[in-house]
UniProtKB/TrEMBL annotation:
Residues 8-348 form the FAD-binding domain. Residues 88-108 are annotated as: Disordered. It holds the Pfam family Rng_hyd_C. InterPro entries: FAD-bd, FAD/NAD-bd_sf, RIFMO-like. PANTHER family: BINDING MONOOXYGENASE, PUTATIVE (JCVI)-RELATED, TRK SYSTEM POTASSIUM UPTAKE PROTEIN. The chain crosses the membrane at residues 7-28. It comes from the Bacteria. This is Monooxygenase FAD-binding protein. GO terms for molecular function: FAD binding; oxidoreductase activity, acting on paired donors, with incorporation or reduction of molecular oxygen, NAD(P)H as one donor, and incorporation of one atom of oxygen. Keywords: FAD, Flavoprotein, Membrane, Monooxygenase, Oxidoreductase, Transmembrane, Transmembrane helix. The keyword Iron-sulfur does not apply. Its cofactor is FAD.
Length: 526
């Protein structure tokens, strides 16, 4: 056995969906990153399958969305109560009772994806490695020691036994709901807590594909003496979930699958699983130089809204640009505090939305009392409040339709198809790398140059009507909620950080002040 030493700005523990996305986003931003994952491949039993428009927007920005087949704009993930897949079908259970969901593709350049987790993860691994991330698979974390100016982590190669001491500036724990990192830090969790333990079986049955009807992909099986849940993967695989923790042998599993299918079809059992239905949100999302992401921060059951995996990927997107700017000395350490300020309320929002809905409210003694928001509001219209957002007051709701927000600070910048150099692009294709200022008057261009000079941070000035042409029915002013002399500052993660309605702000140095506030650099002179 050999022991080596290594250093890296960021070390990610956990190489599933959230860990891989974190490594990809950081590497794309030019941050050297090491990822440690104790397994060498994806789990045999895939978990997540639905990935939202917002997640696909992140993947589009880093250049991999074209590798992920997206769903049709009018697709809805519907659930029906049935006797069996091939038997009588009953009523549909809506995800958000009383609300009709608009077609995808109107408020986003993406439509989301229905892809199994074990199919998506290899795409993320390859993309992260191609962009420079150091992925160390089959390597486990033995211990970690937070210090004032670093975190020291000991790892071991599980095949050869070689150990390595890695010193990192920041540690990101994407190591799952049972996170050893979170447990060692002593961070407690709150929420509805443990509800029950369920078993499942993964099987392949391509012959059952013809029994599907449109976009109904999930089935609550109800028969005398038999209750289970059946869901479909788009590659011929299915998962049957039992409502108990009973262990079943191969013959019992096969008999249950036949009951669920309701037809004598050939199938192949691939794997079994066991998982906990629970709702827990970490009381802290960070401590010192250690950050929690994904299930380590928020444990949520599988939902039609994809609240678990998609929320974790959005955690990674939020944290990556902040780490980049702090490591480059372009932002103060206070910017990293806004990660918890922005993401923990989102975790609680998803928690309450999950357990207030029919899918899970029946398992909770006292369901959370909360207004239900539609999928589009939750994904594309969630609001973040922190010191890195100017103008997102406590009077605002936690989510709303993106059309209603119209460029509200704290919300993802609106999507509109615009023309640039004769090509049709999304406003989101302008975002991602750094700060962007959208404004028409030339005084704002001078203000952007002055802010860049004062802070050493590039601010790209995009001039509607000159650099990009907005459509007549979705003008810049209407879409971003500004007056003709106004301006909108968008952060590197695509969230509106500040907005002005006055041309005098361009001349007074207000942009420099706003940018310094967002970057936690309050002492910068205008």
């Amino acid at each position: 056995m050999q022991t080596s030493q290594d250093t890296t700005p960021v070390l990610v523990i956990g190489g599933s969906l959230v860990g891989l996305s974190t490594a990809l986003f950081l590497a794309w931003r030019g941050v050297p990153t090491v990822l440690v994952e104790k397994h060498r491949a994806s789990a045999a039993h895939p978990r997540a399958i639905g990935f939202t428009e917002l997640t696909l927007e992140h993947f589009r920005t880093v250049g991999i969305a074209d590798q992920i087949p997206q769903v049709a704009p009018d697709l809805r993930l519907r659930r029906v109560t049935v006797e069996s897949l091939g038997g009588a079908w009953g009523e549909e259970t809506p995800w958000t009772p009383g609300q009709a969901e608009p077609d995808k593709g109107a408020a986003s350049p993406c439509t989301g994806a229905a892809i199994a987790q074990d199919v998506l993860e290899p795409i993320l691994r390859r993309a992260a490695a191609e962009r420079g991330a150091d992925l160390r698979l089959g390597v486990e974390m033995l211990s970690f020691e937070p210090q004032d100016d670093r975190v020291v982590v000991r790892t071991r190669d599980r095949s050869g036994g070689d150990e390595c001491e890695i010193q990192c500036a920041y540690l990101i724990a994407a190591d799952g709901a049972d996170s050893p990192v979170r447990e060692q830090l002593g961070i407690a969790r709150s929420g509805v807590g443990h509800l029950r333990v369920l078993r499942s079986v993964l099987f392949r049955c391509e012959a059952a594909e013809h029994l599907l009807n449109g976009d109904v992909q999930q089935f609550q099986i109800e028969q005398p003496g038999f209750s289970a849940f059946l869901t479909h993967y788009p590659d011929g695989r299915w998962v049957l979930m039992f409502a108990d923790d009973a262990e079943r042998d191969a013959s019992e599993l096969a008999a249950s699958i036949r009951r669920a299918l309701g037809r004598d079809l050939e199938f192949e059992i691939l794997a079994t699983g066991r998982w906990e239905m629970a709702g827990r949100i970490a009381d802290r999302y960070s401590l010192g130089r250690v950050f929690l992401a994904g299930d380590a921060a928020h444990q949520l059951p599988p939902t039609r809204g994809g609240f678990g995996a998609n929320t974790g990927i959005d955690d990674a997107w939020n944290l990556a640009w902040k780490l980049q700017m702090v490591l480059a000395s372009q932002a103060g350490e206070g910017l990293l505090e806004t990660y918890a300020q922005e993401r923990q309320p989102i975790g609680w929002l998803r928690h309450h939305q999950t357990f207030a809905r029919p899918d899970y409210s029946r398992w909770v003694g006292q369901a959370p009392q909360t207004e239900l928001y539609g999928a589009q509001a939750l994904e594309l219209g969630q609001l973040v409040r922190s010191a890195a957002v100017i103008g997102a007051g406590p009077e605002l709701p936690p989510a709303a339709d993106p059309v209603v927000w119209a460029g509200q600070p704290g919300v993802r910048a609106p999507h509109v198809w615009v023309s640039r150099d004769g090509a049709r692009i999304s406003t989101h294709d302008l975002l991602g790398r750094g700060f962007m200022l959208l404004a028409e008057p030339s005084d704002w261009g001078e203000a952007a140059a002055a802010a860049s000079m004062a802070l050493g941070v590039a601010v790209q000035w995009v001039r509607p009507g000159v650099d990009v042409i907005f459509p007549a029915d979705a003008t810049f002013e209407r879409t971003f909620g500004v007056s003709p002399p106004g301006a909108c500052l968008v952060r590197p993660d695509g969230v509106v950080g500040w907005r002005s309605q006055r041309l005098s702000d361009a001349r007074s140095g207000a942009l420099t002040t706003a940018l310094a506030t967002v970057l936690a650099r309050p002492n910068v002179k205008r």
